[in-house]
Write a structure and sequence with these properties.
The complex is a heterodimer. By secondary structure, chain A is mostly helical. Chain A has one domain: ABC transporter involved in vitamin B12 uptake, BtuC (Orthogonal Bundle). Chain A contains 14 helices and four strands. In chain A, the strands form two sheets. In chain A, strands 1-4 form a two-stranded antiparallel sheet. A two-stranded antiparallel sheet of chain A has the order 2-3. In chain A, strand 2 and strand 3 form a beta hairpin. In chain A, helix 3 packs across helix 9. Chain A is globular and about 60 Å long. By secondary structure, chain B is of the alpha/beta class. In chain B, the strands form three sheets. Chain B has a six-stranded mixed β-sheet with strand order 6-9-10-3-11-12, with helices on both faces. In chain B, strands 2-1-4-5 form a four-stranded antiparallel β-sheet, covered by helices on one side. In chain B, strands 7-8 form a two-stranded antiparallel sheet. The two termini of chain B are 41 Å apart. The chains are: A mainly alpha, B alpha/beta. At the A-B interface, helix 9, helix 10 and helix 14 of A face helix 2, strand 8 and helix 4 of B.
Chain lengths: 345, 274
Amino acid sequence: MTDTTTDSNVAPASGGISLAEFFRSPAAGAFMGFVVVFVVFAIFGFSRNFLSIPGITTWVNFASLVGIIAIPVGFLMIAGELDISTGAVLPAGAMTVAILCGHYELPVLVGILGALCVGALVGFINGFIVTRTEVPSFIVTLATLFAVAGLTLYLSILFINNTNSFYHAPDWAKALFGGKVFGFNSSVFWWIALVTAFYFFLHKSPKGAWVFALGGDQESARNAGIPVRGLKIGLFMLCSICAAFAGALQVITFNSATSQANFGLIFNTIISVVVGGVLLTGGFGTVMGIVFGVLTLAIVTQAIGFTEIDRNLSFLIIGVMLLIAVLMNDTFRNLATSWSTSKKK
Amino acid sequence: MSDKQPVLELRNVDKSFGPIDVLHEISLKVGEGEVLCLLGDNGAGKSTLIKTLAGVHQPTRGEIIMDGAPTTFSSPREAQERGIATVHQFGGTYPLMSIGHNFFMGVEPTKGFWPFKVYDREKANRIAVEEVQKMGITRITDGDRLVGGLSGGERQSLAIARAVYFGARVLILDEPTAALGVKQAAHVLRIVNEAKRRGLAVIFITHQVMHAMAVGDHFAVLIRGAIAADFRKGDKTREEIADLMAGGESMADLEANIEGYMESHEGHVPPPVH
């Protein structure tokens, strides 16, 4: 790197991805964390089939369901909000499919659509309350978490007199939503498709910047003519719709649904997002970072059985990882803001 | 005052919030290529006046005249569309976003076709850097840099350049130099002069008399929601203005009081008045 400023007044717009650019992106920390965890687990798991097909599919399949939800949760965090109602929306979506298709024998697409509508409704309520009141989104979604969980239990008993339900999807639907290719569930492919779409939305489309603006400075965003309320409600809806969709995929994959709230999911999504380099205070983060965060979490929680590392240590590893990630995020943010022009090629 | 028609004029504007009167019979005007300095201490009603100019509040009485025609701004958006740009103390920028993104926030340039329309990063960065450099900030050369890494003065400059680029005719600068060091403030004052040279009407709000004197053509001192003094450049000295801002006579009274107190209390100062 040189200290001389460029001769022309306007520096050429840098194209492509340079190494330096990568290292100042918030995804860098998440990627390095993933590599470290993968290598360590691969070393300890070499004799225990960590690198075999079942070894890999176990954590990738798990990652896909968490990941489908974690990315929109990450969007909300970038926009300065938190959504923990996902833990109730996923079982609500799953039960909707199971009740509509399993019990009432409606077509599978009706069930999935029903689940997505349930998600959209919960998301709308979350977004509406958050944008119209001063109540922090953590409290609002905590309330809807319990409300939706309770309602799911109540309605399950009311409709089918059972908190669990079973559903066998027709073959084509099973193949599309719950099949296996080389041990990878369909949800993995859905996740890849969604990651592509979300990546395009956040980092390529002109609207992506608006999400960052919400978390950066909401007042300025409003002054700049960004529909703050609409966008925020949209993000909450997206998040709940994705949670409900993950629920639908789960039912079709495992043929069963439970109406118990999935509290673990809440922690998993938020840990993934934070480990993925999204700033808790909003305004900063990447889709690829979240993807690596999800994969790291999945390895530590799911693949530990394929290694010689004691299974009971997985929570400890996650706790340490989360702390390191939060500390690193600050460093990366400072690195990113202090990066000066003179260092470019 | 020049013979030219002012771009923006307030005539006898009052603003009350319920029973509380904040602004009393404010009359101001600002023309093209002119800098009007609004001076006032904290609580003098400066913010309310800015918000009234920017369309956040509507005047209770009196009228706003733009280009000779009475106008009402029902929203900040409408005021912006009519060419009134407000730049706040911290520039209204997003520290963790790039210069290009900050510059084009809300009106991102795109390329490609729907649904694959993408944000045109090169174009945004190029225009943003060019515009900022035109305002005399040559240190900014990379549109990908995050705004958080810029100095306070550079952020202000970016916000002003943005307003100019998007066709602002009236630039309202709310305490742009308040949080800045001497050098940075000089920077911003240069930018204000540049905006003036380009024919913008600038309303410069400050409580730093020095800064006002450096760029202002016309001064108005605001005290308790009313215009206490209104004069052209060179009509008053710095001390006179500072005195006016602090409430004129009451300042002199306060000084006399303190001196009297010190004399009778062995050099101790009186306890502060709450």
